[in-house]
Specification:
CATH architecture: Up-down Bundle
Strand order of the largest sheet: 1-2
Oligomer: single chain
CATH superfamily: Cobalamin adenosyltransferase-like
Strand content: 5-15%
Largest sheet: 2 strands, antiparallel
Order of helices and strands: EEHHHEHHE
Structural class: mainly alpha
Radius of gyration: 18 Å
Distance between the termini: 65 Å
Number of helices: 5
Length: 182
């Protein structure tokens, strides 16, 4: 089986049920989600925390479901591909659990104290871009499951806390973005 077909050489690609330009905002959002899951995978590869890895895999599977949901035109999308509110609630529960275990500084922080923490922070920033793309897609008149935007909003919080968990595991504290005046 060949990995490429050449059908996209003219700048178009397939959604499930429609051929669209590669600059279609749905394709842009799917790309941002693909980037997010790849960075989460990178963070997972650097992480030494079993729990972080398990949660990261769970999130990656959710993101693939969201990409599948977006890949279908509305008329053809099976109900099984629609992200449910329970997945948003799951992220909230995981974030709350970490927030109860990790004390955060009251100031903005600088990412990068550990390789895995830095990677989770990069994943967070890409997830936030995906969220902005989802908001723009919805504002542009495309029908979009509101749970996707809620999920991406919660995901950035979870990824932030996973980064802090990595730092805590290594015994380091995040640097404050603003130095204290002496």
């Amino acid at each position: 089986m060949r990995l490429f077909t050449g059908k996209g050489d003219a700048g178009s690609t397939d959604l499930l049920g429609e051929r669209v330009g590669k600059d279609d905002p749905r394709i842009g959002l799917i790309g941002a989600l693909d980037e997010t899951t790849s960075f989460i995978g990178f963070a997972r590869a650097l992480s030494g925390l079993e729990r972080s890895n398990e949660w990261a895999i769970e999130v990656q599977r959710d993101l693939y479901q969201i990409m599948a949901e977006l890949a279908f035109v509305d008329e053809l999308r099976p109900d099984a591909y629609v992200l449910k509110a329970e997945r948003v609630e799951r992220l909230e529960a995981l974030t709350d659990q970490l927030s109860a275990e990790i004390e955060l500084p009251r100031q903005f922080i600088l990412p990068g104290e550990t390789p895995a923490g830095g990677a989770f922070d990069v994943a967070r920033t890409v997830a936030r871009r995906a969220e902005r793309d989802a908001v723009a897609l919805a504002a542009g008149g495309h029908a979009l499951n509101a749970e996707i935007i809620r999920y991406l909003n919660r995901l950035s919080s979870l990824l932030f806390m996973l980064a802090r968990a990595e730092e805590q595991q290594e015994g380091v504290s995040p640097l404050r973005a603003k130095e204290r005046k002496r």
